[in-house]
Design brief:
Elements (H helix, E strand, L loop, with lengths): L1 H14 L5 H15 L5 E4 L2 E4 L5 E3 L1 E3 L2 E3 L2 E2 L7 H17 L12 E5 L16 E5 L3 E7 L2 E7 L2 E5 L6 H16 L3
Parallel strand pairs: 3-7, 7-8
Antiparallel strand pairs: 1-2, 3-6, 4-5, 8-11, 9-10
Length: 184
């Protein structure tokens, strides 16, 4: 994620406000979900329901437990607006002022644990998938036969096999990685 981190910092400067990993991950997930609409589904009453808008839930840890505010129509929302909405909803969640409507309607969730490298997130009821994001760390990697230090992050995708099979899960992670490695 070295190139992604460099571009994220440039986007923050250009927007004159912070663009975090969470904001870009949400946008990247929404773009991939646009290509793989099986991820924009909810299983309810034994039926799979497809949605036009990609509504991304962002897991927020509170003292009393986890809460998942929902960013609406992420695929069609500019990155700067995704950043503002995510930050605003996170603040509301921490202050106890978030509304039930701001917690409803998510079709995909992102859960980030910046203190661990890898974890397996648990699906939110009805959703088809959740992305777990581990910590970004500098690691030695081989690039063109040379060992170099790069920023590396591990992602875990948990899917409901009633709606998403393993090959489609692999395709999601492949496309998501490609977007982060070539963020332009």
């Amino acid at each position: 994620v070295t190139e992604f981190q460099r571009r994220r910092k440039e986007w923050s400067r250009a927007n004159k406000s912070p663009v975090t990993n969470t904001h870009v991950f949400a946008k990247a997930c929404a773009l991939v979900i646009g290509e793989l609409p099986v991820y924009n589904t909810v299983l309810a009453g034994g039926s799979v329901h497809y949605f036009h808008e990609v509504n991304i839930g962002i897991a927020v840890a509170l003292d009393e437990g986890l809460i998942v505010p929902v960013i609406r129509d992420v695929a069609n929302t500019p990155l700067a607006d995704v950043a503002k909405q995510t930050s605003d909803l996170t603040k509301k969640a921490h202050s106890g002022k978030i509304t039930p409507d701001e917690l409803a309607g998510g079709t995909f969730t992102i859960s980030m644990l910046g203190t661990v490298d890898v974890f397996t997130p648990i699906l939110n009821r009805g959703q088809s998938a959740i992305l777990g994001v581990g910590a970004t760390r500098q690691r030695p990697v081989v690039e063109d036969g040379e060992v170099v230090v790069r920023d590396v992050c591990t992602f875990s995708l948990t899917v409901d096999h009633q709606t998403v099979d393993g090959a489609v899960a692999a395709e999601f992670l492949k496309r998501f990685s490609e977007l982060l490695q070539s963020p332009d």
